[in-house]
Amino acid sequence: MKSLTQLLDKSVFRLVSIMAQLLLLSAVIASFHQVISRFVFESPADWTEVWTRCAIIWVVLLGLVLACRQGAMLKVEMLENALNEKHKRWLSTLVMIITSTFLGILTWVGAMAAYRFRFQTIAGLDFSIAWIYAAIPIGSFLALIAVIVHWSQGSAESNDEIAPL
Description:
Elements: H1 2-39, H2 48-70, H3 77-81, H4 85-116, H5 130-133, H6 135-152
Helix pairs in contact: 1-2, 2-6, 4-6
């Protein structure tokens, strides 16, 4: 299991991190271009606002994956601190099951939405809006994997071998 976790950290989660960073950079550049073209050249570009919105949607859902992998999502710390080690693991398992169920449902619903809107195009970019809706099932599915990998390693406090992304 440890080698699978290391493989996921070095490939999938690292790729997710790089993609999120590049998309965030592209959103910043597009926004900067929009400001310059609108206020300096008085000829605003029609694609920059739409691209920024689309890129930020992807960044949020890819960021969810990274947060789940690091165990940085909201915790039930007050309850966790009151429990002994055995019960902490039970609580961790319960939280993982609830989170995984939610992410599984979100993956399914997101896939249906992406499929349903596949023929609709985005104004200003002229490609299918399904590419934007695809962020929901892709991000949710990868976050589901990240939650399971994080849970399988135990708590982050007891395992310092989680690779930085």
